């Protein structure tokens, strides 16, 4: 479905930043050996990328890439930013979800209000289009309250027939 496709593409887009960090962490030839001075600079560049793109890199995936002997203090700023961002995103999603629920309740109420409107037809009710009594014929009720024979009405309910005078009973 479309939602799944969008989420998959977004995950791939975000993985690009994770891949960039991984490339910085790999030594020459793709080895994960970060022991020399150049490696310390490379590690700092990788941490800098994490701090810069904290909102685009999954912290659990990022921590798996980092060397096990690396002190937490080195990535503390990244983790703080990432957690703050995650919490604010969760809060934003909660607020959005609640607003959507309020909107859903409002729409359901409007639907119920429309469905409970009654139409009273008696032997004196006249079709304003053809002028004949409606009787037991099939009817069409427009949103503005005009009631006509089904055969006299327009299939487009948004435009009721042009009736010069109609007083609903």
From TrEMBL:
InterPro entries: Vam6/VPS39/TRAP1, VPS39/TGFA1_Znf. It comes from the Eukaryota. GO terms for biological process: autophagy; endosomal vesicle fusion. Residues 117-152 form the Vacuolar sorting protein 39/Transforming growth factor beta receptor-associated zinc finger domain. One of its GO terms (cellular component) is membrane. It holds the Pfam family zf-Vps39_C. This is Vacuolar sorting protein 39/Transforming growth factor beta receptor-associated zinc finger domain-containing protein. It comes from Pinguiococcus pyrenoidosus.
